[in-house]
Amino acid sequence: MKTKDFFGKLTSRYVWGNLLAMSLVVVMLCLGVKYGLEIYTHHGEGIPVPNIKGMKFSEANYLLVQNGLRIEVSDSGYNRRLPADCILAQSPGLGTNVKSGHIIYVTVNSPSSPTFAIPDIIDNSSVREATAKLTAMGFKLLAPKYVDGEKDWVYGVICRGRRLSTGDRIPIEYPLALIIGDGKYADGFAEIDISEPEYEGEEYGSDVDEFEDVTAPPAEGDGKEENITIE
């Protein structure tokens, strides 16, 4: 090909038309990607998250949908002062700006107190270790009960008058009392009575005889004893 012919083709309308069309396509692709991503990701858009704590789940769901948001339960808790199925916590919190369709994760109130298994502390740990484990789980501890045995050694756990075993599941709101040794060694630690005393049969004092014979001291001068009946 001659040089004249080569430059002649470069200056033809067909070549320049193709180059212009390619340039327009590239520009349109760039603009499409830019604005398309902004529309898809809602760039620059901000919806303030409303406060839904304390609301029933159905009410919170309705409010969030009205604001273009979604709700999803991530955890449950228990607060006996609040009704079941109400919102205890939310994430993101109040006033946070989020995009449309964002999911608000919530913690809802359980209808009953959660239960936890008693750990392996009975006859297997000191009172300090047992106290640390139980309080970390959220249990409240009452004053301990002492029995003859190794000092500060845990021999049992009591809940509402019942002796517990390892693995028993107890509501977290039930207080516990530890049975611990008082340092007085014995062949075996004493079994303590954890029940209220009961009186069976007749009332106290009913077994006293209605009459009682009493021997009076001898009267002066006769030296004889006289039987006197007291009613």
Overview of this protein structure:
This protein has 231 residues and is α+β, with helices and mostly antiparallel strands. The strands form 5 sheets. It has a 4-stranded mixed β-sheet, with no helix packed on it. Helices cover 25% and strands 26% of the residues. The chain is elongated and about 115 Å long. The chain has 4 helices and 13 strands. The N and C termini lie far apart (153 Å).
Instruction: Report mean pLDDT, rounded to a whole number.
Output: 78
* Number of helices, counting only DSSP H or I runs of 4 residues or more: 4
Order of helices and strands: HHEHEEEEEHEEEEEEE
Shape assignment: elongated
Q: What is the β-strand count?
A: 13
User: What integer value in Å does the Rg equal?
Assistant: 43 Å
Distance between the termini: 153 Å
Largest sheet: 4 strands, mixed
Percent of residues in helices comes to 25-40%
Structural class, please? alpha+beta
Low-confidence stretches are: 196-216, 219-231
Task: For the largest sheet, list the strands in their spatial order.
Answer: 7-11-8-9
What percentage of the residues does DSSP assign to strands (E)? 25-35%
